[in-house]
Write a structure and sequence with these properties.
Length: 325
């Protein structure tokens, strides 16, 4: 049994916790969440959490960005995080950084049945690879490679691969986004920013202005206002926006599942999915996920599950810290 320090560092929210680790059993001893952009650097945020307490020996942080060695330049935050510098400054004996989606993949082993919602039962191949896709502030993707004995999580930056349209409407969407972005990635359409982009495109495409009540809500809570209006069916463009979002998420999830050959399962994580469960379960997601021509039969055999527990990305770093020697 070990007490470790774990963190989930995202573009919108950062969650830190002291965690007691005993094999796959995790007990949260202390936890706090912060608005990431309220701090000029991660060091300042970390110092706030650790004030008036002795740091644990082991620390691990999942970070939304590509990890290169022990350093991360966060994708959607102006932070550069260096594990060696954190170790020296805060007195950790061991400190490591992992990509946030790799962290979620690591955390899957700590989840129970109640932490997951099944969209497609499939035929689980426990000795096959698995994959995680997670729309949130950005779009994260990761894999779990089966090495013959266990699953080994690994990070990707697949969310930044080029968006590929598959309908006339999506071709128009790509043209619209090309005016704004030099490179249109999947993250530009399957993320919180993606929901905003889809909504603005559809408003212009159908020449329907934003109602005043919705404009105020978008100013207050951003993309969540659009999803909320769609679930309530209180605005037709919001309904179409969420439908497009779910369809595109399904299409890219199918791409990832084929590339990883995730016969052990495709998991949908991130902060958006649990908030739009009715839309994900409507059939639109699976229709797009399975629409891969001759490979449809492979995708039909893959279990597809939504991660309901928002601590999965925190559990992963805690388990990784618990393995440190």
């Amino acid at each position: 049994m070990h007490t470790v320090f774990a963190g989930d560092i995202g573009g919108t929210k950062t969650r830190l916790a002291m965690v007691e680790v005993s094999n796959l059993q995790l007990t949260i001893l202390r936890e706090a969440s912060y608005a990431s952009r309220d701090f000029a650097s991660f060091d300042l945020l970390l110092a706030d959490f650790l004030s008036n307490m002795d740091p644990p020996r082991r620390a691990a942080f999942g970070v939304a960005g590509p990890v290169q060695g022990q350093v991360v330049q966060t994708t959607n935050l102006p932070w550069c995080i260096d594990a060696n510098a954190l170790q020296a400054k805060f007195g950790f004996e061991r400190c490591t950084l992992i990509n946030d989606l790799e962290a979620t993949a690591c955390g899957l082993s700590a989840l129970g049945e109640d932490d997951l919602l099944t969209l497609q039962e499939g035929v689980c191949d426990t000795c096959g690879n698995a994959a995680v896709i997670a729309p949130g502030t950005g779009l994260g993707e990761a894999g779990l490679y089966w090495d013959g004995k266990k699953h080994l999580p690994f990070a990707t930056e697949g969310g930044h691969a080029s968006f590929s349209p598959s309908s006339e409407l999506e071709i128009s969407l790509l043209r619209y986004l090309k005016v704004q972005y030099q490179h249109v990635s999947w993250e530009r359409v399957v993320s919180g920013v993606g929901i905003m982009n889809l909504h603005e495109f559809l408003r212009e495409h159908r020449n329907i202005p934003v109602p005043q009540w919705l404009h105020k809500e978008i100013q207050s809570i951003g993309a969540a206002a659009i999803s909320k209006a769609a679930i309530k069916r209180s605005d037709e463009i919001c309904v179409q926006t969420l439908d497009c979002f779910v369809r595109l998420l399904g299409a890219e999830a199918g791409n990832l599942a084929l590339k990883i050959m995730s016969s052990s399962g495709l998991y949908i994580g991130g902060g958006i999915a649990p908030k739009i469960l009715p839309a994900l379960a409507s059939g639109t997601f699976l229709e797009a996920f399975l629409n891969k021509g001759r490979m449809r039969h492979l995708l039909e055999a893959m279990p597809v599950k939504v991660i309901l527990n928002d601590r999965a990305a925190l559990y992963g770093p805690a388990l990784r810290a618990g393995e440190m020697r």
